[in-house]
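Need tokens for this chain, all 153 residues.
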Amino acid sequence: MDTEITQARPADLHVVLAEHSRYWGERDLRSLHLVALLQEFPATCFAARAGDGIRGYLIGFVTPDATGYVHLVATRDDSRGVGLGRRLYAEFERAARRQGARRMKAITSVGNTGSVAFHRALGFDARTVEDYDGPGRTMVVFGRDLPAADRDG
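Here are the structure tokens for all 153 residues:
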């Protein structure tokens, strides 16, 4: 089935939250799905759509210091392992470069080995940062510079 990546809409969050466990399993990340991010940063939020619904999505934005930050990225349980996450990241990088991004960044929990492997496969460096998300909340922080030639997308 063909999957098209398009700009995400606020209503898309209601769709994915209704099937939250298909994207996130047992982890409850519903509180991170902020409609305001799609309202304020529409050019850098994407949904992967197919005839059977939203197969994946990415919510991101470009910070004032020219960092393309991926807040959330997820693929539905029946759409993993086919390169959809990589496609969503590529679309985000193009959009972030158009907005002047010079680097990319994302974070995950220390135990999320799948996310660590995925980001490393995309060329990100990974470092563990204690108290990143508050006292006692250690996170893995991913970063990758965008080569100058690639920034203009």
